[in-house]
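Hello Y.,

Per our agreement to keep a running log of every chain we model this quarter, I'm adding this entry. I've kept the format consistent with earlier entries: sequence first, then predicted structure.
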Amino acid sequence: SPPGREVLARLQREVIDAAADKQPRLTLETGVLTRYRQRLYWVPNALFDAPPARSHWQLDQPLRLGVLQITSSRAGAETTATAESILQGQLRVPAAFSVLEVRFSQGGERILRHGQHQQISEIWRVAGIPPWLRCWLPLFYVNAELVAAAGIGIADNRQTEQDDTMVSWALVAEVDGDSTFLSGEAHARNQ
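Predicted structure for the entry above:
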């Protein structure tokens, strides 16, 4: 049902009219209305759940961790977009990788990119990815080394070839069985 007058008045007062340098929130039963970079977003509660610390992923099997879905296919194979996803992307990893460790940002992670070690969180911030999505973007490790990151791509020191594996990831939040979308724009840049 549409929000009542009280909710709309609170939205105006607490979120829309808040100072420009704030990230105000209005918490409702199934999610949060928030503002980020002068855009209004509906964020389902599932995105505020903490992601698991890590998981080993066999690339020949799909993986679901909370709101994150990950699949893989051979590069060049047809991949289908997840229509109900909030944010999604793809990246290429070397075919030699059969198992990746999937982790989530804890802060301070760096990836070798364009000849420099760059901080993951800063790359995502500059790309305009909202904070509540960043914590769910997967980081891919091999032998404790960060080799790829969602929204960024593969590290410079990892060679990719034509027959490599394409990793597809998507953030999907469901509320009472219905997929929930965000308004506004947040697009990850992938290589």
